[in-house]
């Protein structure tokens, strides 16, 4: 039996530039943080039961891998040649559809488990690229590459994406006190809303492929600004510039909303304006592609008033740290 633990992630800068429709022209850049919040996957090959059993939100039993309805499980099993005699289950610290890259985290974790059943321990690069290939090419999902790489590598990390899709991964190391300060003042709140990131990203992807020049140029220009801002945000974190991070977070949110009308919604826009004017917040954004999930807010003070206000809006604060390990295997040897 193999158990894997794979982190979720938060994008700090450059979000959206990891889509092929953008990076193939100008290259992409992502600065992101893996959270100590995980998806755990268990995979097992029973001795005699020639079925595929999937335990999860929608449990299912199939005679063959090709009949499995869970598309990520099906694609991974077929790719690894497991036609039957597999049982798998997953548990998540945070529900999917909340902007933390859960689908790709699951895919990376499940692939890692299948490798473990074969006695393999793939490198993070190989694991991330395998997940990208299955999700983007085989399943034709309109998503980028950052979620798979952050799930595989973990850490506080930058991803440089070349026009040919090659990804260069670098770890960002901060002074422990500086890192603690960023985490203390960068609040994350759960909005209670969930959505499919691919639906939101489709607007951006379609615009980049559109023959309508004004819309394509607007999205391209915004993504170019977001990519450059990603470098500045990385530099602010490295330099310990907390105030600069707050201001840049606000810039990021303003530009991101130009990408699609589905990224934000009026209630969050109104709340954001209020916490900026009355609660000392200097910047914020919806985490992930947008349309729901978690709201990140930077508050340079003690944050107690903000936290109480958000709780009164039924938006609890997520306490988090940085995961350092990425996707990892734990093997249980049969007796």
Structure write-up:
- Strands 1, 2, 3, 4, 5, 6, 7 and 11 form an eight-stranded mixed β-sheet that branches.
- 43% of the residues lie in helices and 21% in strands.
- A hairpin with a 4-residue loop joins strand 3 (52-55) and strand 4.
- By secondary structure, it is α+β, with helices and mostly antiparallel strands.
- The protein has helices spanning 20-26, 71-80, 102-117, 124-138, 146-153, 176-185, 197-209, 213-239, 242-256, 266-278, 304-312; strands spanning 2-13, 28-44, 52-55, 60-62, 86-92, 156-161, 167-171, 186-190, 283-286, 294-298, 328-331.
- It is globular and about 65 Å long.
What is this entry, summarized?
With 335 residues, the chain is an alpha+beta fold. It has helices at 20-26, 71-80, 102-117, 124-138, 146-153, 176-185, 197-209, 213-239, 242-256, 266-278, 304-312; strands spanning 2-13, 28-44, 52-55, 60-62, 86-92, 156-161, 167-171, 186-190, 283-286, 294-298, 328-331. A hairpin with a 5-residue loop joins strand 6 and strand 7 (167-171).
């Amino acid at each position: 039996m193999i158990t894997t633990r794979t982190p979720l992630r938060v994008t700090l800068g450059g979000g959206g530039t990891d889509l092929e429709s953008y990076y193939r022209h100008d290259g992409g850049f992502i600065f992101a943080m893996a959270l100590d919040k995980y998806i755990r996957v268990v995979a097992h090959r029973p001795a005699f039961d020639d079925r595929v059993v999937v335990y999860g939100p929608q449990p299912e039993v199939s005679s063959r891998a090709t009949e499995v309805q869970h598309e990520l499980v099906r694609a991974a099993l077929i790719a690894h040649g497991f036609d039957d005699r597999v049982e798998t289950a997953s548990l998540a610290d945070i529900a999917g559809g909340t902007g933390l890259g859960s689908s790709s985290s699951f895919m990376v974790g499940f692939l890692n488990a299948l490798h473990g059943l074969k006695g393999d321990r793939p490198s993070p690069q190989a694991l991330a690229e395998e997940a990208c290939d299955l999700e983007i090419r085989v399943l034709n999902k309109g998503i980028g590459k950052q979620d798979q790489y952050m799930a595989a590598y973990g850490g506080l990390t930058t991803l440089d994406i070349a026009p040919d899709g090659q990804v260069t991964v670098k770890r960002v190391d901060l002074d422990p006190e500086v890192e603690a300060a960023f985490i203390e003042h960068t609040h994350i709140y759960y909005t209670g809303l969930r959505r499919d990131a691919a639906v939101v990203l489709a607007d951006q992807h379609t615009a980049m492929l559109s023959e309508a020049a004004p819309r394509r140029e607007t999205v391209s220009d915004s993504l170019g600004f977001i990519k450059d801002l990603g470098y500045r945000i990385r530099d602010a974190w490295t330099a310990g510039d907390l105030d600069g991070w707050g201001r840049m977070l606000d810039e990021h949110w303003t530009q991101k909303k130009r990408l699609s009308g589905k990224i934000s919604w009026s209630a969050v826009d109104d709340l954001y304006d209020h916490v900026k004017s009355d609660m000392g917040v200097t910047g914020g954004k919806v985490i992930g592609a947008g349309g729901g999930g978690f709201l990140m807010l930077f508050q340079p003070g003690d944050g107690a008033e903000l936290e109480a206000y958000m709780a009164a809006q039924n938006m609890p604060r997520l306490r988090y740290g940085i995961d350092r390990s990425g996707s990892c295997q734990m093997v249980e040897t049969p007796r």
